[in-house]
Amino acid sequence: MKSTKIPRYIDSTPQLFFWELDEFVILMSGFALGILGGGLWTLVGLGFGFFLVNVFRKYKDGGLPGQLNHIAHWHNGININSRFPNGGVRRIFK
Q1: Contact 56, 63 (CB under 8 A)
Q2: Does residue 27 contact residue 50 with C-beta atoms inside 8 Å?
Q3: 33-59 pLDDT per residue, tens
Q4: What are phi and psi of 16, to 5 degrees?
Q5: Which of 40, 49, 59, 92 has a 20 to 30 Å separation from 74 between CA atoms?
Q6: What's this model's pTM, rounded to 2 decimal places?
């Protein structure tokens, strides 16, 4: 029988190092923008990424897990489920 790792909470966001996945995406986005700028902008981008992660973490406290996914779905960036694929529609029945 093969053992399977079961998460402690069903809605837990996957973690990379010290950050949840949505926080890590924000950090790497700031770092990538710094790399595109080149030179000293790499460190500035990394610092800006850490700053944005702290701001986002304060925003996320007490909210839904996976808050970045919900924001992206609300602004029609990604599809969360198959029943309501278009997050930009605010009224289902007209």
Answers
A1: no
A2: yes
A3: 999 999 999 999 999 999 999 998 888
A4: -125, 115
A5: 49
A6: 0.65
